[in-house]
Every structure is written in C-alpha cells, then in structure tokens.
Amino acid sequence: METFLKENYNLQAVEIKPLEGYDSENYRVKTAERNYVLKIYKNEVHLKELLLSENRLLQLLSKDNADSYSVPIENLQGNYLTETATSFARLLSFVEGEFLADVEHTPELFESFGKFLAGMDLKLLGVRDIAIEAKKTVWDSQFYQLSKKYLPFIEDPNDRKIVEYFFLQHREIIEPEIENLRKSVIHGDANDWNVLTKNGSVSGIIDLGDMCFSPLINELAIAVTYCMFGKENPAESVLPIIKSYHEILPLKENEIATLYWWIATRLCISVCNSAKTKRDKPDSEYITISEKSAWELLQKLVKLNPILVEDEFRKACGFASKIVDTSEEDLAKRHKIASKALSLQFAKPIKMVGAAFQYMFDSAGRNYLDCYNNIPQVGHCHPKVVEAGQKAMAKLNTNTRYLNDVYNEYSANLLAKFPSSLTKVFFVNSGSAASDLAIRLAMTHTRKKGIVVMEHGYHGNTRVGIDISHYKYNRKGGGGKSETIIEAEIPDTYKGRFTENDGSAGELYAAGTIENINANALPIAAIIAEPIVGCGGQIPLAKDYLKHLYPFIRQQGGVCISDEVQTGFGRLGQSFWGFEMHEVVPDIVIVGKPIGNGHPMAAVITTDEIAESFETGMEFFSSFGGNPVSCAIGQAVLDVLEEENLPNNAQEVGGYLLDLFKNLTDKYEVCGDARGKGLFLGLEFVEDKIGKKPNTKLASFVQNKLRDESILIGTDGPFVNVLKVKPPICFTRENADELVGKIDKILSGM
Ligand code: PMP
How far is CA 721 from CA 46, 215, 234, 466, in A? Predict the structure, then answer.
C-alpha cells in the first residue's frame, strides 16, 4: 500500500488504517501534511464509468466546499482513477468531522442538516450523467421490487408482513405518481454514518457510492429516515430537517405527499438487505448495525395515520393543512341517500380513510387501535390477501358453472379444516345468506319446519335470518316470534339460572330446552346456535350444554347447526371452530365474516347426506358465491392464518387479555364478569357484584371515553352493558396492555 501510494501519488504515508466499507476496501491514509481516503475496488467493467462520474460530481460539489466533500486527488499521470489489471483505486481528501450518528440530535443540528442537503441537491439538480442515470440498484427506492426477492429471508412473518404492506403501499401510492415527481442525481445515502458535523452543525457528507438518478424527494426521505431512529415521535422529530430543506430547495406538494411512503420504503429495503446479509454473512456487524432501529421504526410507522404525517410535513413547509372536518356535510349526504335504519357508531361518527393490521386511520388524522373488528381477522389490508384478490381479479372472475382450479383447491383446503363428517361446501356472500341456506338445507333434509333458536342469538338480515334471530325479532321494531320457532333459554353461567360451569349448569339448561321442545309438539328441523353468543354479550354456552342437546335434536330427526360467523377461523385459539370447544360435531356449519378478511364471502359446510337431500332437481346457484376471486382471497386468508400462526396468537394474547380483564373484575365493583375465549372476549359492567344489575350507562361511557383515547370497541348484550372485544387476531400483548391500561384509567378516574 505504501509503495502504491508512493509510486502513483508521490505520497509518503505515515499511517494506513482500514475503514469500514460496503463495496470497496477503504483506508485512511495519513501523511505528515494531511489525511486521505484510499478506496480500492475490484476492476469490473461497469464500475469504471460510475467511478469517473462519482469523481466528476465530487469535483462539482467540492468546488467551493473543499471541507465538506471528498476532493478527488490526481495520480502522477493526471488521472483520478488508478487502474490495474485487477483493481481501480481512488484517492480522496479526508472529510473531517464527527458523524451525525455520534452526536446529540438537536433541532438546530437538524436544521443545518436540511440546509446542507438542500444546498447539495441544488447543485446536483439539472446535472445529467449517463452512467448514473443507467444505474439500477436495490438501494434506490424506486426499484424496491429488487428487494422483494429477499423477503423470504425475513424470518418472522409478523415482521415480513409489515414490509409487504409498505411495498404494496409504494405500488399503490408512489408508482402512479412517479412520473410527476422531479428526478435528479441524488447522493442517495445521506444516512447518519455518512453525514459529518462540526460544532453542532452539519458540515459535510461522504460516500457517493449510492448516487442515483431518482425522484428528488427520495434524497430527503433517506436523510430523515435515519434521523428518526430511536425518537419517541419520529415524524415530528425530523420536521426541522424538512422545513430547512424546503427553505433552500422548495418542495412541491406532490413530493411531500409521497415523502412518508418513501421513508417507509427505505426502511423496508434496509431490513430486506439486512436479512439477506444475515443469511449470507451471519457475522457481519457493519451491515446489520441499523437493523434493530429500522425494525423498531417500522413498527412505529405502521401505527401512524399517514394523513397526519403528510399534514405535519406540509405544515413544516408552510403549506395549508389538508385536514378539514367535513363530518356535518358527510352526515347530511348520508341521510339523503340512506335510510336511518343504517346505524352509525358514535354520536359524532368517524370517517375512516385507511387501515393497517390492527390500526385504523380517520380523516381527521387520528389513528385507532381496533379492538372489535372481527372481519379483518388477519389484519386490515393484509398485503397477502389484498394482492391475492388483485391478482385473481385481473385474471378471471366468473361463476361456479365452469370448472375452476382455485375453486376446487380452496374448497378442499377449507373442508380439511373440518371434522371428517363435514364434506360438502356451498359458497354464498354473507353470513345472512349462509344461515338462510343452512335453514333451507335443514328443512329440505328433515322435511320439518321447527327451528330451535338461542335467546339473544343473531344469524342474519334476511327474512329467515330475522325469524331465527331472537336478538332481532324480540327487540325494538321486531315482529315477535314466528310459529315455527322454539326459543332456548341462554345457558349463561354468570347471571342465568344456573351458574356452576362444571357441566351441571349445561345439563340443567339443556334439560330446560328439551322440556320446552317436548312441550311444543313442533317437528324440529334444526337447532341453530353460536358457540359463544356474541349479541347476547359474549356469552359462552355453558359447558356440556350442546353435548346434552345435540343428541336429543338428532333423536327428534333434527339437525344441528353451528353459527361460526363470529367465532370461526382461529379466533378462539386452540378451537379453530367454536363447536370444538363444546366437544360436539354439528351437521351444518355456517361461516362468514373472517373467511375473506373483509371480502364479502361466506359458506355453508355440511355432510354428504344433507347435501344429497338438497339435490331435488332445483339448481342451487349463487352469482358470486365461490367465484375464483373469492376463492383466491379465502385461500390467502387460510395461508396467512397458518403462516403467521395466528390461532396460536389468539390463544396466547387472548388468554393474557382475559387475565388482565379478570384483574379489573377483582379491582372494580362495577366490573362484574370477564369471559370468553381466545380473542373473543366480553367485560360485563354491573351496578354491583351481588345484584349484577346491568350498568348500561357505564358501558357506553367507557366505550366513548375509549374512542377519545383512540381505541375502538363494541358494546352488546340485551342491556348493552358488555364491552365486546374481538380484534384482528394479530393483536399483540402491547395492544392488550394499552387497552386495559386505558379502561383502568377511565374507571379509576370516575
Ligand atoms: N351470524 C352471526 C353470528 C353474525 O354475527 C352475523 C353478523 N353479525 C351473521 C350471522 C350475519 O352475517 P352478515 O352480516 O355477513 O350477513
């Protein structure tokens, strides 16, 4: 090395020290006079033009700022690149300063960073360079697709899904806008280990190896990304950088609109590449150094309302806020077009504009923890489900009158989740259509008409749906029980007639129902019940209740229907279906809500025998039921449930949450009961523990207060005094802590 420096640059090195490097060997060279950096690269054809471009741009940048940038040094032949058969070498001046990563981050420092970066970008704006413009690398976020192949190297599927989510958002939000974004040669890696500071100000930048021709806003995005690491409020913390950048190089509104998404993309590219490196070189500390911080930041970003972040960025640049409260007009418009029978949650309704997994975002810029939306079972906008739907929709959407592979495969996979006696599936589009069809199947098979329904049960909005839903026909606006219905007293072991949940209450309740059926003389076609009665206030049927009742129904010639619309698909944890927790096997199962994670689909699953009885000559056809798009989505849901081990998560986090709720029942007289299974739980409010008188006012108060605390939760039960908890089952322990912490705060503050 010494000889090389002497021979090519006529320099007498007194010290040569290796430095960290990504795609070159780097050395710090000390002579008696000054410091240099020597960079040695493999001699690869494509590199030469790029290194020459880098030198040219460094000369441009360092022209009046020799202390801020590495100045290329000529060799004795007058060249900035020293070429041998195997290598290229460049000698550069050494930029002095402390790394931005090593100093305290103050708003003043960040302001100086924004100014410095904008100053550099102003010099680069308009520069054309063929070699750089032809470059396509993984680190240039516009080519985020190149990093997708590293996704499988991210081991934890819960981490991977966040990256997939942000890549999906990049495709949806940035890509359609990309042609309208200013492009420029940019530094491309203004991370805090490349930026130098002196006396509390940014003074220089090194390493132009990632220069690229990319949307200008990407430069700022990369810079702010690393400055967000470890910050309590990441978006807010970097506003001084954005503000001062904008003062020197004014940003356009469409650039600001994409900034947040560029930041997220950069983080995702970073973690993808760390995952790959970790696999290739498990000991490499240098490349995985920022991985932990990147993951922490990604976890934080996914909860942020993008509208709010954009608004903060806009305001930092002096643009007016885009957030306007249009709820009055929206409400008026809604009342014009929709019946008031369509209810709205909350006196001042929320206008939702986006969501990610268990978080939801409203138009006012708030983010919410969603604790009661059990339709997006695997998480709102789960990228695997969204992409499966988009892809299938772009290929073929037709009906079940044609043979179709997705239909066959998905149906088989769905049926494989059921006991071996349940072998046939019919697809429809809503839980209501499914319960309607289930009743038809039961009546056709048994040639009887009587239906046993559960007190407070709900099964659907069709004529038949209402007829079999005590929760509807027996309440305000309901027409009362029809002739063919027999009501079963809800086997509630908290406030019902029998409270020993060791099986004896279940037996006694079943005996009561049997007595009622016997007294009625109505030929029974079916019993329909949910394993945990949601609208009844999350009431698990008493232990052994179904075990005693099912045989009796069958003995009468009836069939047993389990409504798994709420409880199915792993929500209850170990019991993938609710009937499993009652140790019974139904003859007909109806599933809906989570089956498509929000895509309108539902199904009826039954036995060969019952399906055969339905072959009467009348065709069964559903225009949309079982179409290939729905089947692809349903399959994606099954895949994600398995890949992310979500039923297990429901079991684990649900158990933890139930324990926390039980602590509340120990602490507060008004918390009467905590119950449920997995992530299908209820917390019942009462006046006092002895009388168990329903405390409807308190449930409503807590629900509304939680909304103010950015938590969405339901209330239900005949007295609407039960908090209903049924979040997407990717819900975490931290989410559970947050929910219970806030309920505790509300109750203790009363
Ligand atoms: N069954 C149960 C248990 C339900 O909770 C619901 C919906 N809340 C339905 C059936 C009806 O489903 P859908 O709204 O999809 O028609």
Answer: 70, 54, 39, 23
